[in-house]
Amino acid sequence: MLEEGQFVLISNGSGSFWSEPTGELAIRAGTAFVVFPGVAHSYRPAKRTGWHEHWVGIIGPIADRFWDDLFSPAQPLIYVGEDSRLVSAFRNVCELVEYLHQGSQGLLAAKSMEIASMLFQKTLPQRRHEDEHAIGKACMMMVESLHQPIDFKQFAASVAMSYSVFRRRFKDHTGMAPNQYLLQLRLEKASRLLKNTTLSVERISELVGFTSVSYFSRFFKEHTGVSPLRFRSLSHPLSAVDDE
Predict the structure, then answer these.
(1) Is there a contact between 122 and 87 (Cβ–Cβ < 8 Å)?
(2) Domain count of the chain?
(3) Which of 107, 122, 137 is the last residue of a domain?
(4) What is the pLDDT of residue 240?
(5) Which terminus in the chain has less CB density within 10 A, N or C?
(6) Residue 157 resides in a domain
(7) pTM to 2 decimals?
(8) Residue 53 lies in a domain
(9) Is the pLDDT at 125 greater than 80, yes or no?
(10) What pLDDT digit, counting tens, does each position of 23-63 carry?
(11) Residue 29 sits in which domain range?
């Protein structure tokens, strides 16, 4: 395991990559992969083809954001194809390291960050698809589990995201934080049940995940302006009795 993170580009040849989160993965020419600090890993070229490898290591507070937010240990491979700009950027870093002189450290850091940015851009189309799938899965889980507590941190881990990343991406897609979205779903279902059934307020509060009917009533009134029974009476003015 490494203390620093690394970006590795295989411009020719083939081989394999292994890490604890992924198991063994095939590598072909035009593939980059991320080696995460503190994550057990190995990689090697195929005996038949060998490979041409370029790499750069990054460490420090700015780099930590890459490992925490921008790349995922569960998805370390990035197919970049024949990207001459990226190959050139890796070569520039290698040349800077080889002929390093006073004043080059800042340029070396800038070039390394440029590589990180270029690789991140390559992940965006696949990331959007994966995000949409994960957010859709989260929304479906909420709809199916309104009657019980939901552990968003556990769900985020199940889709290979930290909770902070999941929360940010969920809000980007829906306009609301996960818990706000869940409360909105609970409010909508409670409103439907009050309008379309004769279930008691206590039973409805249970069905939408509230353990306290008094808290449910306060929550409902805060968001609709009326109590649950008042909402029901307004929906059925001739058949319901006003509680106020």
Answers:
(1) no
(2) 2
(3) 122
(4) 44
(5) C
(6) no
(7) 0.52
(8) yes
(9) no
(10) 999 999 999 999 988 889 999 999 999 999 988 887 767 66
(11) 5-122
- Tell whether 214 and 107 lie within a shared domain: no
User: Quick one: three-class SS letters along the chain?
Assistant: CCCCEEEEEEEEECEEEEECCCEEEEECCCEEEEECCCCCEEEEECCCCCEEEEEEEECCHHHHHHHHHHCECCECEEECCCCHHHHHHHHHHHHHHHCCCCCCHHHHHHHHHHHHHHHHHHHHHHHHHHHHHHHHHHHHHHHHCCCCCCCHHHHHHHCCCCHHHHHHHHHHHHCCCHHHHHHHHHHHHHHHHHHHCCCCHHHHHHHCCCCCHHHHHHHHHHHHCCCHHHHHHHHCCCCCCCCC
Both tokens assigned to 43: 């990689």
Token match 């009476």: residue?
A: 233
Encoded tokens for 8: 């590795």
In a domain, residue 133? The reply is no
Q: What pLDDT does residue 126 have?
A: 64
